[in-house]
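Researcher: Please generate the 3D structure of the following complex. Treat every line as part of one assembly.
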Amino acid sequence: MTGASAAIPSALGRRSSSGGVLLRAASLALYVLLLLPLAGLTVLAFAQPVEGHVLSALRLASGETLTLLLGVGVLSASVGVGAAWLIAMYRFPLRDILAVLLVAPLALPTYLAAYVAVELTDYFGPLQSALRLIGGYTLRREYWFPDVRTLPGAILVLSLVLYPYAYLAARIMFERQGSTLIQAARLQGCTGLRLFLRIGLPLARPAVIGGGVFALLETLNDIGAVEHLGVQSLSLAIKSVWLNRGNLPGAAQISLLCLVMVVAILMAEHAFRRHAAYAGSSRATAPLTPIRLTGFRAALASLACAAPVIIGFALPAAFLAVEAYRMVLKSGISPAIVHALANSVMLSAGAAAIVAAVGISVALAARLLPDKVTTLAPRIGAIGYAVPGTVLVIALLPVFAVVDNGLEVAGLSLALSGGLAAVLTAYVVRFTGMGIAQAEAGLSRLSRNIDHAARMLGAKANRLAFTVLMPNILPAVGLGALLVFVDAMKELPATLLLRPLNTETLATSLYAHASAGSFEDGAIEGLLLLLIGLIPVSILARARSA
Amino acid sequence: MHSKSLRPAALAAALFCTPAVAQEVNVYTYREPALLKPLLDAFTAETGIKVATIFAKEGLEERIAAEGTRSPADVFMTADFASLERARTMGLTRQVNSEALSRAIPPGYRDAQGHWYGLTYRARVAYVSKARVSETQLTYEDLADPKWKGRFCLRSGKHIYNNLLFAAAIAHMGEAKAEDWIRGLKANLVRKPSGGDREVAKDIASGACDIGFANTYYMGHMLNGAPDQKPWAEAVRVVLPKFRNGGTHVNLSGIAIMKNAPNAANAQKLAEWLVGEKAQALYSKVNYEFPVRAGVPIDPAIAGFGVLTPDTLSFEAILKERTKAADVVDRVGFDGGPGS
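Model: Done. Output below.
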């Protein structure tokens, strides 16, 4: 976008700023929400100087952490974009159901994926047992079998549950914005792999980066999977600095450094994206006409899309189903599980709704009322994602205490700490980046000409926002809300540490079993997490095909 | 949900913590709910005192501190003595003088000032292959011997179980000798540290390794829990190692009553009930732990390991070396695995 055309909406925005109080207020509220834990974290980090062991912990963990991030980034993007391309461009057997199920692995918490992967692939698991039976082996050293408790194993396991971020983003790119370009290239005889490399990949770049960032942040935050699989991760180093060395400020220092790096990457990505004008025209884009594959090629496409679904979803689901069946036979379905399910759904739905509202308001404010405050707001949205979960919660605790002191002074016998509101607040802080990113992505697909036309006709910012733009970005925002729902269902650190007494969710209940050393006893909860996750996933898919 | 019930007051009550609704005793715990539930249910059945719990893995001290005088926490139950001592040094605990507690718990297993009390202990022992290891007596120091090269397996050296074991080693041998020992252990590793304590048994059963450190209670769980884990435990024999100049490393689970406890009297009743004979036996039966109270029957699953001689090193002495233990683990690159 050129400077001249950018000046128009901002000039218009200023003129009608009186109408945008609501939007601007939402941006400011976001600052308060996100900067408070950041302030908490900063106070904590500066409580003492950086000690030598903090630096050596960083140095020791940085190598494998970076390899892990790079590996998960490349592999999850490859799987996600590859599958998205096949689904968008071709018709083949099982294509419609695979299009839905390709999102399903997202519902599996990373640590559960790691535990299940180990159970399925180790010596006593069904795969090696079958191999021994077929090959007539008895000992492990008589045959070769890949070991999942390794760094490459961790990359594979994490990629197979985190690729859906890139998949969803890339599919939208191919099917919506890119369709005209793809059709044109096809008409000029560019097809197959050449079309993918020359048109598909460049088109997918922002989607890969945007979706990939969330996959990488989840990776950076994971502690259960990497510890089980034996990766020397930054998250484990932070925990060791905090608890083994009793140096909470040191843990905050590493977290703050992570945060600075993540924000820098996001800023760079944003600057990068601005140079490439991806915003489509205001004209309706031509829908893609998929090519029907037959024979060997159709089978190959089905297989390629089925593989991540089978490994990332079907196998873990089958494993959990068997274990859940065993648990039901043993002790039935306790009312506690029903309560946990209700709590999970209620909290996640609440978080999704709030995050969607925040996302819409902040993205609209940045577009319609651009000034320093509103345009920076979307950029800080990822703060919550970029700090390790437990550290974020520890930083939030003193903030809640301040609020509660205020409530007490005001004579209200209510406290944020120890209530569900605290959990919800943490969810919003954590996931708001996703809501904003999706709302922004939706807006970026709407030409600025729409704004100009509406303004010419006298629409004020609020009216333009709520009657013209918002209906158009609701699908994108809905996507964000559903992703937040799935993420909140499996969220652990904040739920675990902030929830009220006698309150469990599916994730905390499952984790309690896992930390007792036998996650199989939480199989019912794990299976429910996966199945509930399928509901938003199928809604997503239906919205796509509509 | 009835829409009429969703009045503002009801919504506020659902979202916020209302201190007026006091539970009869509120437990903040690092111990898993499945383990505590049979105990707490029995307590409620006997005393009529209802118990509310919240379980987490870390950060509860910070939560209690942030809640301050409003905290509903009455007791803090942990799986290790480090967290109890941490809560005490953060000023979260209160001094409790109880005849029942002091009589049931030996002096080394409770805070001298009465800020926390141990309830059970477990030992960090050697799981060895029944088929491939003949030794029936071992010192911890022995495991650094090159004869175990490529035969030893362990979870992350950063995990608290190993951190405390290594801290105890430093307290016994001094930092330099302990570092040599840990370096020797690392050289003997068959693979990069990963998994949990049960994976030691599993790796022994699969033939991947012959020996490793793990906690006692997992044996009971594997033998009597999920049927697929039984073969792991059956491939393993437990040897109770000792430090050359000491005993077997043990960790203590325990309880502390909070300074701002709204139900302090009930909290003390709970603590005293938990060291009673019934509760102590239940601990051993449900989680295969060693009761702190003398003369309580121990579950056969752990009684068969032989006579446990707990290390005489004080818990305070071990805690002092935790940071050094973490330093050594980083310095020798323990988690990088053999050859790193």
